[in-house]
């Protein structure tokens, strides 16, 4: 159990981010769900009714440094510390490479890669003052296995893996761990339908991952894998090692 710990999750209004938040709540952590969508406050309020920890929602824009700074300061004021941060906010435009517009590329890279960078930078500054902390970024299976149509998305997610490694080395001796988790084909509101059905036959386990399953991986890496840093953990049903 993680009673007394404080976990912060970005992109937490739905999908994997919500599942991570709920898994921390099940472990009795205090949890702050953040999202640019104001609905995050209602989502958090419902969780707060179900679980023992202090759970709240916070509107935060990961592409705005001022919003990140303000949000982190508000959390420190309310909770006194942050133990774990899950940089999960992201998304992407899925198109064949030559069909990607400038706007498609910029939108995807700004949200996924730049947004993660801005969050990591401010979180690390906070953790340096605090003396410890654990960051887990959301990368993607597409970084190692590419079903096509993911030029901008993979550029961003590969960049996240690179940043994870760089930050891990920079602060390994400062009691700050930085890792990432690469979910496989995960059933979420953002990818249900044609894309999911098309890729599912390539998964050796012949089913999609649930958000609840991959959430357990995030929580383990954040809180239990205390000698792990700079790593990307794949939770993909075997896709990265072979097709069946």
Automatic annotation (TrEMBL):
Gene3D superfamilies: NAD(P)-binding Rossmann-like Domain. Keywords: Oxidoreductase. It comes from the Bacteria. Belongs to the short-chain dehydrogenases/reductases (SDR) family. This is SDR family oxidoreductase. The keyword Amino-acid biosynthesis does not apply. PROSITE patterns: ADH_SHORT. The keyword Lyase does not apply.
């Amino acid at each position: 159990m993680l009673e007394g710990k404080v976990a912060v999750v970005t992109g937490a209004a739905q999908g994997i981010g919500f599942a991570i938040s709920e898994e921390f709540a099940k472990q009795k952590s205090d949890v702050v769900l953040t999202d640019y969508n104001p609905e995050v406050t209602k989502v958090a309020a419902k969780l707060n009714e179900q679980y023992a920890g202090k759970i709240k929602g916070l509107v935060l824009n990961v592409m705005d440094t001022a919003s990140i700074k303000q949000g982190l300061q508000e959390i420190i004021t309310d909770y006194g510390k942050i133990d774990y941060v899950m940089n999960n906010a992201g998304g992407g435009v899925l198109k064949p490479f030559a069909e990607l517009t400038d706007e498609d590329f910029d939108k995807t890279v700004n949200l996924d890669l730049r947004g993660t960078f801005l969050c990591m930078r401010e979180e690390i500054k906070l953790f340096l003052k605090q003396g410890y902390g654990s960051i887990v970024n959301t990368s993607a299976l597409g970084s190692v296995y590419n079903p096509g149509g993911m030029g901008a998305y993979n550029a961003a997610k590969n960049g996240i893996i690179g940043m994870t490694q760089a930050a891990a080395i920079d602060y390994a001796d400062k009691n700050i761990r930085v890792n990432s988790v690469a979910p496989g084909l995960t059933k979420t509101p953002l990818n249900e339908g044609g894309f999911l059905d098309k890729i599912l036959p390539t998964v050796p386990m012949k089913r999609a991952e649930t958000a609840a399953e991959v959430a357990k991986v995030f929580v383990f890496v954040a809180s239990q894998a205390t000698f792990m840093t700079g790593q990307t953990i794949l939770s993909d049903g075997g896709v990265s090692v072979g097709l069946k």
